[in-house]
Amino acid sequence: ILFLLRLTEYKQASTYLLRGRAVRATCQKTNHNNKQKKPATMGKDKKKSFVFIRDPDYGWRPAVQEGTRGNKAIVTVPEFKDEQSMMSSVGGKKGEEGEVNLKDYEAEVLPLQNVDHNGNLQEFADMVKLPYLHEAGILYNLKKRHIDGKPYTRTGDIVIAVNPFQWFTDLYTENKRKYYSNKIVWEGGEKDPREGLEPHIYEVSSLSYKGLAFQGIDQSILVSGESGAGKTETVKIAMNHMASVQAGPQKLDDLYGDDAGSNELDPVVQRVVDSNPLLEAFGNASTRRNDNSSRFGKYLQLQFDNQNKGGMASASNSNCRLAGSKCEVYLLEKNRVTYHDPEERTYHIFYQVIAAPDSVKSDFWDKLKGTNRDSFKWVGKSATKKVEGMSDDEHFDNTCKILELVNVHGLKLRTLVRSVCVVLQAGNITFGAKGGDTDKSEITSAKEVAEMADLMGVSTEDLGLAFTERTMKTKTETYKVPLTATVAQEAVESFAKEVYGKIFLWVVQEVNKATKAEDNYQGGGRDDFGIIGMLDIFGFESFVVNRFEQLCINYANEKLQQKFTEDVFRAVQLEYEAEGIALAEISYDDNTDVLDLIESRTGLLAMLNEECIRPKGSDYDFVQKALSQNKTSPCLLLNKTDRMSFGVHHYAGKVMYAAEGFVASNQDTLPTDLEDLMMKSDNEIVSWKVPEAAPAAKAGGRGGPRRQKSNIVGSTVWAKYKTQLTSLMTSLRKTSSRYIRCIKPNMKKKPILMEHIPTVEQLRCAGVVAAVTLARSAFPNRLDNQGVRFRYNSMWDKNAFPTKKTSSMTPEEGARCDAEAILTCALKIKEFVDKGGNVKQAFVVGKTKSFFRAGAMEYLESNRATGLDSQATTIQKIGRGYVTRKRFRDLVHGAAEREKKMREEAERKARERKEKFEREKADRDAARQGDKVKLQQKLKKVKEQMEEADEYKKQSLGEISDRKAKAQEEIEALRDQTSEEARKALMEPKKLAAQQKKKIEENTKLIEYLKKENKKIRKDHGKIKAKYDVVKSNNDKLIENNESTGENFDDLNETTGRVHQKNEDLTVTLEKAKKDNKKLKEKCMAKQEEYMSQAETRLEYQKTMARILNMIQDQSKEQQLVEDTVVIALECEAEAKAIMAALEAETGDGF
Asked: What is the pTM of this model?
């Protein structure tokens, strides 16, 4: 053990020796440069650091800080193939060196990368544990996890959900739900239940349920993010888990079993879970950023029966049960009803109704049959064919099923769909100048008006007058004012938006009736339910042109940011108290100034409401009053080039607003004519009077004028919205809030890809960066005390700064004392005097962690190697002593032993070589004897084969000679017979023909026989040749074996000679047979030529007979003579054909 320890010390000593030499060389070089250069142009520091620098294209990008020169940082920026490959400084090619102005960065220090000792980016599931927590660190940590398929990251109590644009099935299984429920809710323990768990939406829902069930405190989950970031899907995931976590602790068998065994939900819970798609149908639309974007804010309150919460201490069962839900909605985007971007869509329900089957549509309204998207102006064409994998007609079927689930069916469903058709039909109404008078208008689409009147159950005349005239009232009289075509069109649009607003609120009301616990749980009548609220609201918005809707949305986000800041401050406060740090160290900026600008007595809200109730209020007057009354506000921005716009410096950034249409958009009122028209309708939804949720705020908070406005009813949009928002914030402040920030990583909706600039902007808008700034406003960086002692021990002068640690202290207390001494020594140079004249240190040591002010940890990292000289000297002393002692031991005790081992090794190798030689010799002798026996057996077998071949040759030669003689005799006989028969045939044509035929047949048979015999001879010859080849091959093998063995086989040579002699005789015989066969073939060919000449003679004879026959037929008068001549001619012709066919067959076959 001592040897290994010393060896380790020696290796470490070598490393630190080199570092010590490098440090001394650096110091010497620096001193030399300082002598030659002026102080203003000092040379570069030699310590390299992995840092981030700002980039206009990528937001933040990795770089290597080579050193500093004054207030400039010398950096090398690596080159990457694309934005996606940027992870850390070691991942790219070395780039060019440049300078960065440190004044552009906080505390004039470049933010450090969170990398390991190899320079690779480190990933942290909880970003509170990031050693360097800043905007760039958050961005790259999220990017690393996003690429690795981990969409969720934790920042203290905040969960950041990055939309992966793909579904990870393994993250949302029933077993995964049970696992998080068991770990967080049902398993007890003092430590943080999230420890060891990957961040997940399920942890938020589980902690919320636990807080309600165990502590009896109402909970809220605030979900925010821009369109397409996944807010709605996140709320669905959390709500579904909330419905299942109430099942109580799961057994181990259930936990790891199949998902099919999950518990069935009761009807009330099922209604709560399934009602969400219904709100999506009426409140969601397809946008450029998202195919299913929520165009309204939603606060869903899950109601739990928690009366028996006292029985939850054992955590053995679940007494906190989901009883129902109720939903509140905010700021529906009504403008989308009458206008939407060509690349976007209006609300889903319109497309669903149009896509329904004609048989279904005709049940609602007969004029709806056969219509499509082009039939309605405000719907129009759309490239989106499916939403979340389902077509519009499939969605309509699903919407009808969910409506039935909330008791909307039959007549209610028909009323609802017909009210939707009213809005659709309103878009088809057109206006023109009445009788050429542009100050008056009339409806130019009579058919469409009649159909709309029929839908509403009103007369066509009432409908036309409501849209083309306006009723004005004074104290003494009432009169009608005609409207221009443009104003009439705006009236129709206002009417349609108001009707759709009623439709949406009516659907929400019906859902609440079916799901709220007060009416449906255990017979109703109770109202003491615990609440877990889930807020799904639009995120901060900043576009090229921002209007009234964006100001309302950003106002809501300012209110939520205020609560978010309060909650983060409370969490920081708890952390500081736990570490024993004074709260006076915390300083942060809240958004009170922005809220005062918007909602104070002289703020934007009051000025806009005042213009709305003023008879001739205008957008221009609103802007001028707002600028005049709030000119001292630091958050109000003035646009000197455009007097119809203004800006607000929100917490997420500066936003300029175009004021055109502000006054009109804020007037959430209808002329009395349109109000009366709605009340006349027989459609219950169109004529429904929406109840006021709370008393409307008075305009500007000043009481406002008491006189009745001529044709204005109700309050302004902003006043109503503020009332709703105030009520919402009051409810949220009564709950324990948890936050989910949804991030859209890229605008292309592609998996894995993350674009830096949009992501950073969303982090700012979501308040994540502000939360980090607040959490680390005084101390941006922190490190546990054990890490401080290990990492910066080299910078500690123990004599000048002794530790206060004693033997009676616990390890944590000892680490705290050591850390305080180390940091006091190392950061002495960073001390400063505050405004009160007090000396402040650059750090504070807590019970378990050390907290560093801005720039302190960067200074430590840059100078960590400067204190290694003395330690390197000590390590050198130990290492050199070990090396010297080892050499001495080798000299005294090791030489003889090494020589002895060398001798023994040499003897062993010699013995092994001898044994190996003897084994190989024995193997060779045995192999040689075996080869000799095998050769003798082969020679014996060859002799037997040669004798058999000789016998077979003799028999074959005799048979061939007999066949040849017999064939020769037959040929001669055939030749004689053929000559004699030919002569006879010439003399006697008819007789000759018969005989000729017979002979030809015999000759044909003879030729066939000769052919067969010739083939047999050839076959025998082939066999003999094969035998000869075998014998020759064997002979060659014998010769080779003779040469290899080197033995004297005289008898074998004699036998071989005889075999050669016989083979030569056989070869001669074969050659002779070939010559005879060739002669026979020549004779046969000659015979064939003779036959051919005879056939030609016969053919000429036939032609002569034909001419004779023709002459007889022409000149002879005796019929019998003619017939006899014809018969003879036909017989001759048949015989000639037979002869020619036989000759052609012989000629074709050949020999």
From this structure: 0.65
